[in-house]
Amino acid sequence: MASPPSTLQVKVSPAKKKSSILRSLPFPLTFTFPPSPPPTVRDVKLAIAKAHPSLYTERQKISLPENSKALPDESSILFGSGGDVEVLVGDLGPQISWTTVFLVEYAGPLIIHPLIYHLPTLFYGKAVQHSALQKSVYAMVLLHFLKREFETLFVHRFSHATMPFRNIFKNSAHYHLLSGLLLAYDIYRPGFSEPSVAGTWRDNSTLLTGAWGVWAFAELSNLSTHLTVRNLRPAGTTTRAVPMGYGFSAPFNLAFPNYFFEIMGWTVVCAMSGSLAAGLFLVVSTVQMIVWAQKKHAAYKREFGDKYPRGRKAIFPGIL
């Protein structure tokens, strides 16, 4: 029986030399590791980043020559009998932290709504006597996105540290334009002002009080589910477990109750106002969350198998 090789060598070649960084590196790169335990993809990334700091770990995609799919960081490098292997490194481009992404996304409505609400003459050409409805929507929107900012800083733990910087513009557009500019401009206009809604169903104090109650329930329930998920993952890890407890178990029995409660909260804003802009944001957001929930729900089933609760739905109790 042949003895194991004294060293394990990883040859790193460029996947495609499209980026300026990959064109500038002296390929192939070769790194030598101790034979036990075998290095992981993460170890290879760290070695590349140490030799060439401009290609930091979050910017790298490591794959095999025969398969362009990215290898997970925790996977071990499989060596041939000679104790060497070749992998490809791709450049994912400049990265930005997910924390920064969410802070920027949610900051949009927090800036846009106060501007339009407090400076109506600038946007509508005249002053607006704000109705109780407008005041309620204004408070709900600000509280919702302040909660989102708080969760980003102190609650959420992300599986991936970064994403490509270029994506922040696409991600932010959803919030800055739909729940920011479009919703604010529509809901604070003179058509929803105190003189315009006086004596109509939009001026019903009982309706507004009920709306506040349902909205607060949805927001607090959403926060509760986020805290549950946070507690499943120790800090600094990517540990995954089947979430249980409020929202995840009966009577809701959902894989992603956070999405369900999010939809509930925006449904309240849409129903209490009758705003077309609120309706558009609700529809777009709901469709996107359904897509995310179904994809992640299927991944949960594959990952946890028999340990996953039978009968659990993805996003709507007993339906979907």
Strand and helix map with partners:
Elements: E1 8-14, H1 20-24, E2 29-33, H2 41-51, E3 60-63, E4 84-91, E5 95-97, H3 98-118, H4 120-124, H5 132-154, E6 162-164, H6 167-187, H7 194-197, H8 205-232, H9 257-273, H10 276-304
Main features:
320 residues, alpha+beta, Ubiquitin-like (UB roll), 2 domains, 4-stranded mixed beta sheet, two-stranded antiparallel ribbon, 6 strands, 51% helix, elongated, membrane, transmembrane helix, lipid biosynthesis, lipid metabolism, oxidoreductase
Describe this structure in words.
- The model has no long low-confidence stretch (mean pLDDT 92).
- The strands form 2 sheets. A 4-stranded mixed beta sheet has the order 2-1-4-3, with helices on one face. It has a two-stranded antiparallel sheet with strand order 5-6.
- It is elongated and about 85 Å long.
- Helix content is 51%, strand content 9%.
- The protein has helices at 20-24, 41-51, 98-118, 120-124, 132-154, 167-187, 194-197, 205-232, 257-273, 276-304; strands at 8-14, 29-33, 60-63, 84-91, 95-97, 162-164.
- It is α+β, with helices and mostly antiparallel strands and 320 residues long.
- It folds into 2 domains: 8-92, Phosphatidylinositol 3-kinase Catalytic Subunit, Chain A, domain 1 (Ubiquitin-like (UB roll)), CATH 3.10.20; 96-307, no CATH class.
